[in-house]
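chain below, 223 aa
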Amino acid sequence: MRALPAPLLVITDRHQARYSLEAIAEMVGEGGGRWLLLRDKDLEPAARRSLAVRLAEIARRHGMHLTVSRDVDLAAECGASVHLQSAAAVNAARQRLGPAVLIGVSTHGLGEVAAAAAAGADYVTLSPIFLTSSKPGYGPALGITAIGPAATLGISVLALGGLTADVVSPCLRAGARGVAVMGGIMRSDNPGRTIGGLLAACKVATVALDSTSSIPRGLVRSR
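prediction:
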């Protein structure tokens, strides 16, 4: 499996954000975050492109990897990777972006994870692991037990949905290669501190796993 840019994927949502997305991106980078996903799919195309360009510049300054949700052309323009909504879109994205570009897919069950793996995606987000206030009523929660079977399908799994620092370790022990967080960072009054706590939890969990297993986990350690 291809190595991921970082063990923590930060997903944007300006509707929940306490600060501008640019300010949050700066705080994520300063806090050690190295992977940012521009979601905000409801933005008018020109406004989203402008935001993507600004976030790409912030990402470059902080050594962050930028991913764009859905829009393959925008990802190509910004030198970003892409996160898709279904496995059916993977082949076209791969043809447009080439074999070296990271492609992810949103999944909500084992069948969708298997489809993404078969389509040649590099990773999936699996959600919701826990109930989340970011998407109330979206569920039911899959629970940590859903991660293990998904992790056997030959694709990196990021746990998403209601993730906090205290559940990072159980998710990684279950087989997740990392975690993805949206609302917990967007709503935080101190995103940098929240990032620090999540990264510390990832580091502790990864060190513990590496000490008990010789199987590479495919993570590029955060700085």
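The chain is about 40% helix and 15% strand. The chain has one domain: 8-212.
thats it, cya
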